[in-house]
Amino acid sequence: xxxxxxxxxxxxxxxxxxxxxxxxxxxxxxxxxxxxxxxxxxxxxxxxxxxxxxxxxxxxxxxxxxxxxxxxxxxxxxxxxxxxxxxxxxxxxxxxxxxxxxxxxxxxxxxxxxxxxxxxxxxxxxxxxxxxxxxxxxxxxxxxxxxxxxxxxxxxxxxxxxxxxxxxxxxxxxxxxxxxxxxxxxxxxxxxxxxxxxxxxxxxxxxxxxxxxxxxxxxxxxxxxxxxxxxxxxxxxxxxxxxxxxxxxxxxxxxxxxxxxxxxxxxxxxxxxxxxxxxxxxxxxxxxxxxxxxxxxxxxxxxxxxxxxxxxxxxxxxxxxxxxxxxxxxxxxxxxxxxxxxxxxxxxxxxxxxxxxxxxxxxxxxxxxxxxxxxxxxxxxxxxxxxxxxxxxxxxxxxxxxxxxxxxxxxxxxxxxxxxxxxxxxxxxxxxxxxxxxxxxxxxxxxxxxxxxxxxxxxxx
Length: 461
Hints:
mainly alpha
């Protein structure tokens, strides 16, 4: 199997400001507008956007009690990134009331007004999750009554523990939040709350991919709390699938692939043994867990060299959420691992077409595959496009740097012939455009973006 380079970006606020400035003029608007005004989802909307829109509708119509807890969306800054990709600096403000009128739907303002009123516990839970998805952590904190706290002494609420953790993740170090979750998982809180707190710790540690005492403790506490809860019915079986998916991380980081596959297989069995019925929230909850599980299955199979099995699971991702850039990123990775280069290029192209920040990774990896195929001029264009969208990824800079000199191919008779002349012309034109973009952004909205980012990460006070 071919090993693909890892695409990593700087998570710091300064890097986020850089990405926002780049997106303003990158010319890759996100195809879905749910996170910039709560417009209705369309064919290009990912599953998590459809969930967000459904949550908003349930919240304003007074049926929050029927909304389950979903997996968090892929980025805490989706609204900022979406608005910036549309070239709308006025859409990245930290105050919901100043959002551009021409972008905001009626649902947007109904959410805003409803969140200001008196809310029951279920409504506060949904409002908090929704406001975090829309990129307003301060409003989310206010909705659940979270004020200045001491992370070492704070006692989680039995009813809003997960919402408190979600808000605190925006303001405190990960280690402090995870320690708080572990304390809650060991406390006398209700079993469902303890289970969710323990799973929070497991998922956070699993994302880092390293064995740790926190991972082991979280998994053990999740299993213990789950044993106190019913395992039957739609909701119970769905939670069992989530539990098995989570604790599979323990043997995986220990390289016990057999046990990893056994647990993921049990998660898949749980998922396929239930049908969501006609209720919209049940259907979305089932699809949400299915998407997360198949993502893990793809990543696990790729990690152990089972490219074809990984590719089979990407078929499920395409069916569940064809508008998600993660779908096409994983499908492209699986196709590349199987040596199906042309199909991988097509998959990454689907990701580029969705626009937004996700197009940066897709265009870089499409360039990587084109490079392997000897299509260096096209690869250079993709590297420059990726860098134009997200200048914070060092791997992209390295890719551009690798195309600085034309390659020379030996010919009979000992002579050499430059084969990169056309590629160099394309590269020089693209780099000149990129320099112009960066120069323009140096004085266009930089201070405004910096203020927005600082406000979004400022501690609760």
